[in-house]
Amino acid sequence: MTQADDQTSESIGQTISQKTVVITGGNAGIGKESAVAIASMGARVMFTSRDAQRGADALSEVKERSGSTKVELLSLDLASLASIRSFATTVMSATDRIDVLLNNAGLLQTQRSMTVDGFETTFGVNHLGHFLLTDLLGGILTKTAKEFGESRVVAVASNAHKFARNGVNFDDLERRKNYSGMGVYGESKLANILFANELAKRLSGSGVTANSLHPGYVASRFGRDGDTGRLDWAVALGAQLFAISPKKGAATSVFVATDQSTATASGGYYEKSRLKKPTSQALDTDAQKRLWEVSTELVNR
Ligand SMILES: NC(=O)c1ccc[n+]([C@@H]2O[C@H](COP(=O)([O-])OP(=O)(O)OC[C@H]3O[C@@H](n4cnc5c(N)ncnc54)[C@H](OP(=O)(O)O)[C@@H]3O)[C@@H](O)[C@H]2O)c1
Question: Topology of domain 3-300, per CATH?
Answer without folding.
Answer: Rossmann fold (3.40.50)
